[in-house]
What we know:
With 106 residues, the chain is mainly α. It has helices at 44-52, 58-62, 66-72, 88-102, and strands at 17-20, 37-40.
Amino acid sequence: STHGAFLCIDSPLADVKRVQLPPLDNDGQLLNFTNHYAFPIVSDKDISVMASEGVETIRDLSSSDLYSVLKLRGFDYPGRYAQEVPNVCYLRAISIAVVEKCSVKV
Length: 106
């Protein structure tokens, strides 16, 4: 359904997708009316790693503190390593952008 293509600040991180738009021809028209494709940005394993740190939604990741983000990047206390989410900085930037775009400024 079309509803699944929309995000809000409380959407689960699993809903964040990369969308490949249909190609255009030289005149800027859709090539053969092909469909778009959506690909997950974050794996199920990474979703579970973030959930273990209490990060489950776009809002959670956008408001994560420095130490939570470092832990998701694979750094824990000196000499200890945590499970790394490879694209957590990219996901956090997307999360912050969604929160800023969807927030009502008063």
